[in-house]
Amino acid sequence: DNHFVVLGIETSCDDTAAAVVRSNGEILSQVVSSQADLLTKYGGVAPKMAEEAHSQVIDQVVQEALDNAYMTEKDLTAVAVTIGPGLSLCLRVLPWNAQQFFLHYAVGVQKARQIAGSFKLPIIGIHHMEAHALVARLTEKDLQFPFIALLISGGHNLLILARDLGQYVQLGTTIDDAIGEAYDKTAKWLGLDLRRSGGPAIEELAKEGNAKSVSFSVPMKQHKDCNFSYAGLKTQVRLAIESKKMYDMGYGLFCSDANIPISSASKEDRLARADIAAAFQRIAVLHLEERCERAIQWALKMEPSIRHLIISGGVASNHYVRSRLDMVVKKNGLQLVCPPPRLCTDNGVMVAWTGIEHFRMGRYDPPPPAEEPENFV
Ligand code: KG4
Ligand code: ZN
């Protein structure tokens, strides 16, 4: 393998990320700019704001990624960019913006096309979820196809059998919300500090709580498949928070108003919130465990040579999730692979790496024109 270098750009949700990666898996640089203050202000991702925030920082993020790798565009072999799925405003692959009535590419795609056009570089369109899965092959050199992937993030909850590059069989998906969405809403309702995303805040608070003190039911017990559902658990959590039952249990009227931030909660109130966080996390992850166990059985029937189950996506950076799934996977004779936390959450490295995998197989597009037609902006 004659080494080559790929720039990866990711702007599909609320992080603007870029990275430079060498084809041997060496990460030369990675930069992530997150929209933390926007998240607090709007209590979640607001697509139009996200798009504007991407356009404000994209040039700087890409420049920093190149500088940190001690490279210029001339040293690149190709540019890889996420083209879906994600917030449609942030990804728009169709060059059409109905609001402004002129042709318009998504922020990341536009930047990638500019660079590829001016420097005559091939361009590789990347599926965000494929990138989450394949980055595991960068961190674990021993990870061969076929393998199972559990991809858990804010917008997706997928179980797939990866048979080969580009050959994925969906074993299960969510019928409503993804687990990350449930973490984020639970964090919001519990009044946690949202300057960082909800997941890590719940993970931390849950350590103080007793997971068995509140009983939530495991979703989809009666469905003997590999699909997920988190809407019902979200409702259970909301009801528990609102419930006066907690009063009878001696908690008092704790966090009846979700607007009371946890920082100004009383000691008992904080503990009651921690109990809910712990109970929520236990059941949310139990649901993953059950589905993974079944997925392993299904997948081994199709591909008996499978040796690994990988987890990736933002929620896979959670230590409780990792340790629980490690038990399930080991019990079933496989090995768990999880990329380090900063490669689990959205990042440019996974995009660059997936670009490398595709480029090797000759799957890329020729350089776009150096100048887009006039009506493109
Ligand atoms: O993959 P990602 O960065 O973006 C999407 O593609 O959605 O995942 C973001 C999600 C958010 O819902 C966030 O709360 C969750 O991942 N997350 C976590 C943790 N870190 C991030 N959830 C649970 N525990 C964590 N430590
Ligand atoms: Zn993601």
From TrEMBL:
Gcp-like domain residues: 26-353
Cofactor note: Binds 1 divalent metal cation per subunit.
Cofactors demanded by this protein: a divalent metal cation
GO molecular function: metal ion binding; tRNA N(6)-L-threonylcarbamoyladenine synthase activity
Record carries keyword tRNA processing: yes
Claim: S-adenosyl-L-methionine is one of the keywords in the record: no
UniProt KW keywords: Acyltransferase, Metal-binding, Mitochondrion, Transferase, tRNA processing
Broad class of where this protein is predominantly found: mitochondrion
Lineage top rank: taxon: Eukaryota
GO cellular component, one term: mitochondrion
Catalyzed reactions per annotation: L-threonylcarbamoyladenylate + adenosine(37) in tRNA = N(6)-L-threonylcarbamoyladenosine(37) in tRNA + AMP + H(+)
Gene Ontology biological process terms from the UniProt entry: tRNA threonylcarbamoyladenosine modification
Subcellular compartments: Mitochondrion
Family: Belongs to the KAE1 / TsaD family.
Quaternary structure annotation from Swiss-Prot or TrEMBL: Homodimer.
Functional note: Required for the formation of a threonylcarbamoyl group on adenosine at position 37 (t(6)A37) in mitochondrial tRNAs that read codons beginning with adenine. Probably involved in the transfer of the threonylcarbamoyl moiety of threonylcarbamoyl-AMP (TC-AMP) to the N6 group of A37. Involved in mitochondrial genome maintenance.
Protein's recorded name: Glycoprotease 1
Organism of origin: Arachis hypogaea (Peanut)
Lineage, top ranks: Eukaryota, Viridiplantae, Streptophyta, Embryophyta, Tracheophyta
From-to range in the entire protein, with total length: 75 to 451 of 493
